[in-house]
Amino acid sequence: MTALEIIRHKRDGLAHSAAELEFLARGAATGSIPDYQLAAWLMAVRLRGMDETETHALTMAMAHSGRMLDLSSIPGTKVDKHSTGGVGDKATLVVAPMVAAAGIPVAKLSGRALGHSGGTLDKLEAIPGLRVDLTVDAFVSQVRRIGIAIAGQTADLAPADKTLYALRDTTATVDSVPLIASSVMSKKLAAGADAIVLDVKTGRGAFIDTQAEGEALARLLVAIGARAGRQTVAYVTDMSQPLGRAVGNALEIAEAIETLRGGGPADLRQLSLRLGAEMLRLAGAGDDLAANETRLAEGLRDGQALRKFGELIEAQGGDPRVGDDPGRLPRAPVQRAVSAPRDGVVSAIDALEIGLVSKALGAGRDRKEDPIDVSVGIVLHRKVGDAVRAGEALATVHAARADQFDALRGRVAAAFQIGRDAQPLPLILRRIAQG
């Protein structure tokens, strides 16, 4: 068996055997298959697809390509949460400490920026001193000690996925449903959680365009979880406009802190409470999602969730004072508004374009080794359904240089459609569970 044969099989539209996928995952993990062959295979999958049996086999092969984390020493049901990625999606930064503050252990492995979507690890690294590269033993020990850890994949945890994940970002294969599903679930299974809550984004700012495709991916993710013996629930949520108002690493940390204080944008708060309530349900805290949301909201009001975030920051070497003073976060030197050209109501915001402009400012990467400027990004002042008058700010661009703003301001303005009327979009579209 060779990598060339496997590439040819998928190029010609044939189904992979489990043995082929195990060979490929092993080659990705060990480096015995070079990047250029892996990239060719990724494109073949993007164009030809994989069925559920292939996707499950790839998921298991990637999960077992390294160490499988054992969280049994941590008391209670461990529930993980994952988003397929979108523009301004900082929900993990709210959900994880909120749920941990409610007494449910959260052991969260996260990723970096992928395509136009930001990465939780890059956002956390905007906090001065914070480390996301924890050893497995340190990761488990931290969850046992304070109830929460958010870290990146270690070299020995799903290493095949780590290689393929980075290559997908640079080969225009991010939006492949089987590649998304296998990447998400291999990390979740290797990370050892007992139950998994998934947020499947769909719309212009997501990697999945339509609700129907989002539901198909959600069903696939839930099916993989069920076959692996994990309780799994997926929500399909709208990403046709950015989530919240902040897009960019330090800016999103500041917005997450605002939400943990009990404020924040209504859509971010709504989504965080629902996903957190589902995590509580899977952990055995009660089946009434509304009651679980009320419990979590109380943790926001009384400061428990924010204090837990501070514990997380301090445990991972960051400056916990940012919770009280977000001004300690990195700030872009150029901050200029983009104004509305006329009176009206915001009828649409092109989330993809906002994400791409943020990436062009330096908040994302084109190559896996590229650095990120954590200070730059965009803050929206209007969302869909909001009224605006000519000359009022639609958004503020946070840039490293004035020439960046000058070059990109037109794209930001064009991302906003202004009409006579509009209704806010529904955020939560569908819940998909086992059975």
Explain this structure.
The protein has 435 residues and is of the alpha/beta class. The chain has 3 domains: 3-49, Transferase, Pyrimidine Nucleoside Phosphorylase, Chain A, domain 3; 79-326 and 428-433, Pyrimidine Nucleoside Phosphorylase, Chain A, domain 2; 330-419, Pyrimidine nucleoside phosphorylase-like, C-terminal domain (Aldehyde Oxidoreductase, domain 3), CATH 3.90.1170. Helix content is 45%, strand content 15%. The protein has 16 helices and 13 strands. It has a 4-stranded mixed sheet with strand order 1-4-5-13, with helices on both faces. It has a 4-stranded antiparallel sheet with strand order 6-9-11-7, with helices on both faces. Helix 1 (3-11) packs parallel to helix 3, helix 12 (266-282) packs across helix 13 and helix 15 runs antiparallel to helix 16. The chain is globular, with a radius of gyration of 21 Å.
